[in-house]
Amino acid sequence: MARFLIVEDSSVILKVLKHVARQTLEEEPWYAMNMAQAVELYQAHRHQLVAALVDLALPDAPHGELVDYLLQQGLPVVVLTGTSDGDVRDQLLKKGVADYVIKESRFSYQYAVQMLQRLEKNRSVEVLIAEDSSTYRHYVRQLLELHQYRVHEAENGAQALEILQQQPAIRLVITDYHMPQLDGFELVQAIRHRFEKRNIAIIGLSGQEDSAISVKFIKNGANDFLSKPFEQEEFVCRVTNNIEALDSLEQLQWQASRDYLTGLYNRRYFSEEGETLLQRAVREQQPLSLAVLDIDFFKNINDEYGHQAGDMVLQQLAQLLEETLGRFLVARTGGEEFSVLLPGLDNDKALSLLNGLRQNVEERIFDIPDDFVRISISAGVAASVALPQPSLSALFARADEHLYRAKEAGRNLVMGDDEDDE
Ligand SMILES: Nc1nc2c(ncn2[C@@H]2O[C@H](COP(=O)(O)OP(=O)(O)OP(=O)(O)O)[C@@H](O)[C@H]2O)c(=O)[nH]1
């Protein structure tokens, strides 16, 4: 179901907007060429609509009547306009439009459509304002809510820290400098003590009278700063830039830790996280096991049905692993090799769990293009207690030995440290 409404009377510009929307948005928006069509679409789909991109002057609404109508209904509106008149801009911002875009080039249409997407994403982004002046706090809240952010408020730094503790989803903190109890710098330092820049962004607010404050904010760990009083648009741009920088970092982190084909963790992440989990288990004298599993005769699937079929089998096995063992650390650690780190499980429990998985795989049908295949897996399990000096590489070496034995013994088997292998 479409979530955006785009209204433009020029068929040439509408064509450009459609092209940009198809490249940017996941779903096709609703399109209208005049106010009558737009109102009809709004009334029919108002519960799904998230935001609208509206041309200011339409044949049946020459003075922005559609913008007024949609704002009255509470729908966030991005305005498209051919005029760069400062008064028009001020009037529109005063009315409460989320943004306005001057029709200048292909890039401005791109910006406008991306803004629709941003407004939708912002509905799940939480922002905290730390500011002792209730007037300013209220003003900043209004600006953020105009852009659909979910807003928390704190009257001072100490309260801001409390809220951050209770609301782990907060991604951006906007903080004033002068505040009772804990000032802006102390708050930034306290936040950086607990959260890295890639997890929470901070924008400092400072009065114009002291430009050194801005620099100090950045040097103390803030990502950005704004001098008060600020332009609404500059504020919104800074907030958007910081949130988008966090999004990009998150995406990079995801890509660096994941296997592209299956979406499971990759070997690198598994090794880092696995070592930490192992050392914790040793410290707390808790059992921990590692299972390394491998598809039997996987080469035959590639040879018989092609590489794409092989990839599909790997993806489906990864999904099964995620569904059944997702509470543990699961990774694709090689071509057709997967590893599972099992904190809390000794050799017997790990063997029994892996044997259950082995049976599950054996009974399952794996879809490939126009056909299906059956597969089996073999696995080697190593427990940390069996090692004099537990390390992840020592665990891997031992699990690999057991996997090799399972292959030698005929495959579709799980073997471990215990002599009564299953
Ligand atoms: N489709 C696909 N195949 C892969 C991928 N990575 C590795 N392989 C294939 O996995 C196969 C592994 O073959 P082998 O090491 O001989 O092992 P096997 O055929 O599974 O036999 P055993 O492990 O001894 O039971 C090779 O044909 C690789 O090309 C991948 O990402 N996609």
TrEMBL record:
InterPro entries, per database record: CheY-like_superfamily, Diguanylate_Cyclase, GGDEF_dom, Nucleotide_cyclase, Rev_trsase/Diguanyl_cyclase, Sig_transdc_resp-reg_receiver
Modified residues (4-aspartylphosphate): D55, D176
Catalytic reactions on record: 2 GTP = 3',3'-c-di-GMP + 2 diphosphate
Entry keyword annotation includes Transferase: yes
Limits of the Response regulatory domain: 3-118, 126-243
SMART domains: GGDEF, REC
MF terms (GO), sorted A to Z: diguanylate cyclase activity
Keywords, comma-separated and alphabetical: Nucleotidyltransferase, Phosphoprotein, Transferase
Listed Pfam families: GGDEF, Response_reg
E.C. numbers: 2.7.7.65
Residue ranges of every copy of the GGDEF domain listed in the record: 286-419
NCBIfam families found in the cross-reference section: GGDEF (TIGR00254)
Protein name according to UniProt: diguanylate cyclase
Species of the source: Bacterioplanoides pacificum
